[in-house]
Amino acid sequence: MLTNDSKKKLIEIIKSGKDSVNYSEKQKKDNQKIEEYRKKRRSLDIFKFAIMYMVSLAILGSGGVYLSQYFDHTKEYNQLKKRNQDLECSVAVRSSLNSLDNFIQLLDKNIQMVNINKNLEPFSNYLDQKDVDFAPYDKIPKGSPTYLEIKDNFIQALKINGKSDVNYDKMPLSQLAQLAREENKKQISDLYKKYGKITHIMGPMKAELNKIEEIQKQNENKLMEQNENYKK
Amino acid sequence: METSTIRSGGIQYVKNFLDPKMALKEFGVLSFLFGKGISVPKPNFLNANNTSFAMQYIQGEKISGTEDELEPILKTMAKYHSIGAKDIKKYLKWFLPSYLDEGKLYSNKLGLNGNFKKMYKKMYDLSDCLVHNDLMDKNLMNDGKNIYFIDWGSAIYGMPQTDLVRIITTFGKLDTPYEETIKQKYNELNPTKNFEEKYSLAKDFQEIKLVAKAMDFATSPENKKEVQKSIELIREKLKC
Quick check: B112 and B234 in contact, CB under 8 A? Predict the structure, then answer.
């Protein structure tokens, strides 16, 4: 395309141009450029590192906060759970004790009702007495059906609550009544001692409560029957 | 830009770059060619930022331009030109430019369009090997035993004739009776299809490159005029 002359001239232009450039200065400029570039790069690297450091710190920090919150929550949750359990237990104990009290009262009433129903005449004097605990068991004639029935009731109650190996048959009625009452009080105090501090009581308590409820029901049914018989 | 330092294991030649892509390219090409047994300096380390790498320091001088040197140069050229296009595409084409990149650069610089575009697109289609693209005396080091090809910074994926034209120009044999003999010698070493067509394309392209380079160095109005003349000549020839 180009003639040889023009090529030669072009090469001369390039050569003269190259000669006119001061290479040491050019190199210096190049080196400066490189230094600037490296500085920029280094600063960028530092910036990147700083950002990464901050981000990782933030992640770690938030993770730590989350974990501490989690542990706090679990601690609180466990405490609440325990408290709740305690409350449940105490409520259960209280309700069971209440029912036990009721049962004892019912038992007493039952005994008295039996007394009242079957031996109205000899005990009519004592019907007005408010405190049924002071029933004059000593005045009931020994060996009479009333005496035997009352005795049986007491012995049954004592066998449920008290010791099974004691011979209750030979005891006088008043002593039996007193024993039954004392045994009941003991039972209640024992229950308070046993379950007042709260542990896992639901199993044994429930079994006992079921027993109590059954007896209660039986007694109620008996009373109802007796009342109905009495009305007739 | 380039410094040499002494490290353990001998003198290392350290080359610094502004553009990490360039460092990666040259290091990649050198590693590839060293692996293929071409006489190039052994590449040793590339730094983490890809801004500089160290290579074997060649204790020699640039070629003096005697005819004894021409034959080993042609042999080495034929050796690296005959590496399969598959290998080059697989390992090097990631960072090797092509005639399309160069062509766009010169068409913008010299304001050439139309036929010039067709020309460099055709050259791109005919490309099938790794080309040094800057084979001047400065980039060929003779240490007494071997001739080393250095400075692969401007390597492209192209036609072998580009290097051939450049080396014939370097030896001052272009447009002389010796040109044909050198071409023949090369063609015997590395026979290629459409040799003449490719050679003429490479020659034209080389002239355009020369003008573009002269444009950078032309500062005085006279020189500028001369360059402008050459550009017009090219336009006339290419009809664009």
Answer: yes
Contact A1 B18 (CB under 8 A): no
Is the sign of the CA dihedral B185, B186, B192, B195 positive or negative?
A: negative
Query: B34: domain CATH number?
Result: 3.30.200.20
The total number of structural domains that make up chain B: 2
- Looking only at the bridges linking them, the beta strands covering B2-7 and B10-16 are antiparallel
Would an 8 Å CB–CB cutoff place A30 in contact with chain B?
Answer: yes
The answer to whether the complex's ipTM is over 0.85 is no
pTM assigned to the model: 0.56
**Can you tell me the distance from the alpha carbon of B119 to that of B100, in angstroms, rounded to the nearest whole number?**
10
Q: A13 vs B227: CB contact, 8 Å cut-off?
A: yes
Query: Do residues B117 and B206 share a domain?
Result: yes
CB contact under 8 A, A10 and B226: yes
CA A150 centroid distance within chain:
44
* Å between B80 CA and nearest CA of chain A: 28
Shared domain check, B186 and B135:
yes
Residue in chain B lying closest to A8 (CA): B210
In tens, the pLDDT along A115-124 reads 444 443 333 3
